[in-house]
Structure formats: C-alpha cells, structure tokens
Amino acid sequence: MREKNFKIILSIVIIVFAGIISYEAYTIYLIQESIADISIKQTTQEISTENLKLELKQLEQRRASDIKNISSLLEESSSQLVELKKDVSNIQVKSQDFTGIIEEVTKAVVSVITDVSQGSGVIIRSDGYIVTNVHVLEDARRIRVITSDKEIYSAKLIGYSKTTDIALLKIDADDLHYLKFGDSDDVKPGQRVIAVGNPAGLDFSVTEGIVSAVHRKVRNEDTEYIQTDVPINPGNSGGPLINIKKEIIGINNFKIGGFESLGFAIESNIVKDVTDEIFQKLEEQQAQQNQTQ
C-alpha cells in the first residue's frame, strides 16, 4: 500500500515538475519572442528615422531651390516692370506729342543776354552750370541769364572751346531744374525732336521737327552735327535739341541761309566731352588753390 502511494506521489511530483519546466520553457520562449519583436521594431524605427531625415533633407533642398527660383522670378519681374513703366511713359509722351514734357524741359532753358547779342542756353547741373554757344558770347563784356521763372542772374564764363563753339557759364544759384545729356550716337534719322530757345526775343519758344541726318560735317570742320528740319532762327543758338526722353541730344548752332529746314545742332556727345574737360580743369585749379592756401 505504501509503495503504491509512493508511486502515485512520485508521479504527481514528476507531472508537477514537468509542468513547471514546461511553463518555464514557455515563459523563456515568450521573453525571447518579445525581445526579437522589440529588436525588429527598433530596427524598423531606426530605418524610419533615417528615411525621415533623408526626406527632410530632400525637402529642405527643394525648398532652397524653390526660394532661389522665386527670387530669380521676382528680380526678373521687377526688371520687366521697370522697363514696362518706361515704355508706358514713352507711349504716354508720344501720344501727347511732346506736350507732356514741354513744361519740364523749358524750366531748364535760359535766355543768354549780353551787351551785344542774345541767345539761349540750357542748365546741365542743379548748381547753376549752363551750356551755350561761344558765338553768343562773342565780344561780350557782360553776360546775364534769365530763367523760365524770370529770375535774372549775372553769369561768369567758366571755359569754352572755339573749335566746337561750346561755352560753359556759371550763375550763383542752387536747386535749379536741369537736363541730362542723351547719347547722340543713338539718334536716328526720322526721330522726332524739339528745339527750345529764344528766337527773335520770343523767349522759351518751342519748335518741333525730325532728324534729317546724323554725324553731318559742314563748313569743312571736324565737328559733327545733327541735321534737323526744326525751325532754328537767331536767338535759338545755344539752346537744346531734345528727344522724347527729355534728354539733350544736341545744342542748336546754326542754319543755312536761303534754304528752308536746314538746321544744325552740335551732337551731345561732343558737347559732353567739352564740358567734362572744362569741369576737370576747374577741379584741378581748385585743388591747386587749396594747396597754396
């Protein structure tokens, strides 16, 4: 009986022990599976993180490229807008047949009166520098300038070139309206122009015409002229020939007597070269005076 009970108890112990071992083995299996699953998840997460970093980098590169392209488009659009404004302005002026610029242009034109003659001039700097013809000042002992607002100034001769018939005057005034030089090499036959001056004492008269020829040489001189059909009369000499952009493209100089519509203006590039040379000499003189003081 005891032996039988012992066998029964031993069998139970073996079963319980086997169950415990099986449970422990299963538990270890579950732990290993969990560890493996965690490793897979970590690996997947690492891969996902790397992919995310790569995508972010690519996105940043595309963003930088887009910003660059947008900036380039903005610059191009801004440039096109400026050109468009210029074109619109020119179209508006052309449609008004110079009327849109006459008032502004005449503010920069002056009457040049001496004790022996009368002519015209144009202000080229706001501090009172004026271009005219040398022959307007010939034999003069006194020079006066009258502006469009009827102000009268005494003028001083700063320099001149007899070869080109260009003289530079100075009046004691500031903040004057002035005109800029245009490029006379860009002037074409057929281009519409105006002349502003004081013919026969009729101050600030405006005449209109077209360019007949460019780089014209007359009187066996080296000076080149713009030939126009704009009426030029005594008193117009020294006044500006103006294009649609309100630029000085020439200084009216003379006409051929006995013929109609044969006026000539000294090309603006020549005038600018002469005035630049005079300004340079003036600066050198002022520098020398400062050194001696």
Question: Overview of this structure, please?
Answer:
About 45% of the residues lie in helices and about 25% in strands. With about 290 residues, it is of the alpha+beta class. Strand 11 (about 250-255) and strand 12 (about 265) form a beta hairpin. The strands form 2 sheets. The protein has a 6-stranded antiparallel barrel. A 6-stranded antiparallel β-barrel has the order 7-8-9-12-11-10. The chain has helices at about 1-95, 100-105, 270-290, and strands spanning about 110-115, 120-125, 130-135, 145, 150-160, 165-170, 190-195, 205-215, 225-230, 240, 250-255, 265. It folds into 3 domains: about 1-95; about 100-170, Beta Barrel (Thrombin, subunit H), CATH 2.40.10; about 185-275, Trypsin-like serine proteases (Thrombin, subunit H, Beta Barrel), CATH 2.40.10.
**Can you tell me the overall shape?**
elongated
SS content category: alpha+beta
* Whole-number tally of structural domains: 3
The oligomerization state is: single chain
Q: What distance separates the N and C termini? A: 145 Å
* Strand content range: 25-35%
Helical stretch tally: 3
Main sheet makeup: 6 strands, antiparallel, barrel
Radius of gyration: 45 Å
Total strands: 12
Mean pLDDT: 81
Helix content: 40-55%
